[in-house]
Amino acid sequence: MFPTDPISNLAALIRCPSVTPAEGGALTALAAMLEPLGFKIDRVVAKEAGTPDIDNLYARIGGDGPHLMFAGHTDVVPVGDEAAWSHPPFSAEIADGEMYGRGAVDMKGGIACFVAAVARHVEKHGPPQGSISFLITGDEEGPAINGTVKLLEWAAAKGEHWDACLVGEPTNPDQLGDMIKIGRRGSLSGRITVNGVQGHAAYPHLADNPVRGILQLTQALMDPPFDGGTENFQPSNLEVTTIDVGNAAVNVIPARASAAFNIRFNDSWTAESLKAEIVARLDRAAAEGALRPGRAPVQYDIAWSERPSHVFLTRNNALIDSLSAAVEAVTGRQPQLSTTGGTSDARFIKDYCPVVEFGLVGKTMHMVDERVALADLETLTGIYETFIARWFGHAAA
Ligand SMILES: [Zn+2]
């Protein structure tokens, strides 16, 4: 039987406790849905020293012609306080028209709907005029090392290439049809450490207080703004996320102070140009020494977090127009094309093909009582099915 019902698809997925890094049976359940449709399924286990092995899945149906990829993840975040849930988090219980469960919206729901949409398409029209593939990882909510990155490399190495990708993460803030994501801001983090000289608070001339230096440097990071935003992006924004001195004594000047920061940046920067700007700001502030009259420049070190996320913007009319038109046809609402929010695995896929994101309403993701309206599952399936038909129509034209 074809898996045309998103509600039963989702129930089967929610009942698999696939908290990262556990597969929990979720990929096996997904494979069982895709096999009857004629998908060729590969299970790919990715390994790396120091990280848990991760189960991933790649499935493809069809042959030559345009190739559409659907990407997502079956892993979920922990349930938190299980006793606080109104319905057990892996039960898929339905109450008042909503299905409860961890992953209901982020993002087993999106997968359940895309499976149903493909099943309906194949039922009506037979195999696609080209190919449809599922690239599903079990490592999106974790370190994301053995997930999408390695699965893409594995598939590309065996000759797979794609013309477009839809990521089914929850993108709508309030209701279905609000928002399609057509890009994402970049993200860069670092930590600065100011080294001073420890001493007695009553004899500051014998010491060098690093708290003065760290205040000056963090101030220079936060002000002035990095830019005023661009056509498709919000202004870049830096937040100092912690300042650490760890000094328990009020009469001791500490030896060291450090601070961490994260910046979400738009397409007027690259990670490299932004690092240069940050270092220039820190050097200027270190030399100024307004809080340190008569002192030498602040001595500081900076350590960058290992992997910045790069900013990207998708410009592909066949993909964006097909999806927008599908959303409008089914919901009567014109979705906003947005680049807001955090990073997602789209940042890896963009190196292989144009990518956009559209999924469920994200309100309850990662929360206790994560849940999805059954009506939304049907609507999203309709949107995905319409999108598939339009995209292949567009790509074949
Ligand atoms: Zn997600």
TrEMBL record:
<protein>
    <recommendedName>
        <fullName>Succinyl-diaminopimelate desuccinylase</fullName>
        <ecNumber>3.5.1.18</ecNumber>
    </recommendedName>
</protein>
<comment type="function">
    <text>Catalyzes the hydrolysis of N-succinyl-L,L-diaminopimelic acid (SDAP), forming succinate and LL-2,6-diaminopimelate (DAP), an intermediate involved in the bacterial biosynthesis of lysine and meso-diaminopimelic acid, an essential component of bacterial cell walls.</text>
</comment>
<keyword id="KW-0220">Diaminopimelate biosynthesis</keyword>
<feature type="binding site">
    <location>
        <position position="106"/>
    </location>
    <ligand>
        <name>Zn(2+) 2</name>
    </ligand>
</feature>
<dbReference type="InterPro" id="IPR005941">
    <property type="entry name" value="DapE_proteobac"/>
</dbReference>
<dbReference type="Pfam" id="PF01546">
    <property type="entry name" value="Peptidase_M20"/>
</dbReference>
<comment type="subunit">
    <text>Homodimer.</text>
</comment>
<dbReference type="GO" id="GO:0008270">
    <property type="term" value="F:zinc ion binding"/>
</dbReference>
<feature type="binding site">
    <location>
        <position position="169"/>
    </location>
    <ligand>
        <name>Zn(2+) 1</name>
    </ligand>
</feature>
<comment type="similarity">
    <text>Belongs to the peptidase M20A family. DapE subfamily.</text>
</comment>
<keyword id="KW-0862">Zinc</keyword>
<keyword id="KW-0457">Lysine biosynthesis</keyword>
<keyword id="KW-0479">Metal-binding</keyword>
<keyword id="KW-0170">Cobalt</keyword>
<feature type="domain" description="Peptidase M20 dimerisation">
    <location>
        <begin position="182"/>
        <end position="289"/>
    </location>
</feature>
<dbReference type="GO" id="GO:0006526">
    <property type="term" value="P:L-arginine biosynthetic process"/>
</dbReference>
<dbReference type="GO" id="GO:0008777">
    <property type="term" value="F:acetylornithine deacetylase activity"/>
</dbReference>
<dbReference type="InterPro" id="IPR002933">
    <property type="entry name" value="Peptidase_M20"/>
</dbReference>
<dbReference type="InterPro" id="IPR050072">
    <property type="entry name" value="Peptidase_M20A"/>
</dbReference>
<dbReference type="Pfam" id="PF07687">
    <property type="entry name" value="M20_dimer"/>
</dbReference>
<feature type="binding site">
    <location>
        <position position="106"/>
    </location>
    <ligand>
        <name>Zn(2+) 1</name>
    </ligand>
</feature>
<feature type="active site">
    <location>
        <position position="75"/>
    </location>
</feature>
<feature type="binding site">
    <location>
        <position position="73"/>
    </location>
    <ligand>
        <name>Zn(2+) 1</name>
    </ligand>
</feature>
<keyword id="KW-0378">Hydrolase</keyword>
<feature type="active site" description="Proton acceptor">
    <location>
        <position position="140"/>
    </location>
</feature>
<feature type="binding site">
    <location>
        <position position="366"/>
    </location>
    <ligand>
        <name>Zn(2+) 2</name>
    </ligand>
</feature>
<dbReference type="GO" id="GO:0009089">
    <property type="term" value="P:lysine biosynthetic process via diaminopimelate"/>
</dbReference>
<dbReference type="GO" id="GO:0009014">
    <property type="term" value="F:succinyl-diaminopimelate desuccinylase activity"/>
</dbReference>
<dbReference type="GO" id="GO:0050897">
    <property type="term" value="F:cobalt ion binding"/>
</dbReference>
<feature type="binding site">
    <location>
        <position position="141"/>
    </location>
    <ligand>
        <name>Zn(2+) 2</name>
    </ligand>
</feature>
<dbReference type="InterPro" id="IPR036264">
    <property type="entry name" value="Bact_exopeptidase_dim_dom"/>
</dbReference>
<dbReference type="GO" id="GO:0019877">
    <property type="term" value="P:diaminopimelate biosynthetic process"/>
</dbReference>
<keyword id="KW-0028">Amino-acid biosynthesis</keyword>
<dbReference type="InterPro" id="IPR001261">
    <property type="entry name" value="ArgE/DapE_CS"/>
</dbReference>
<comment type="pathway">
    <text>Amino-acid biosynthesis; L-lysine biosynthesis via DAP pathway; LL-2,6-diaminopimelate from (S)-tetrahydrodipicolinate (succinylase route): step 3/3.</text>
</comment>
<dbReference type="InterPro" id="IPR011650">
    <property type="entry name" value="Peptidase_M20_dimer"/>
</dbReference>
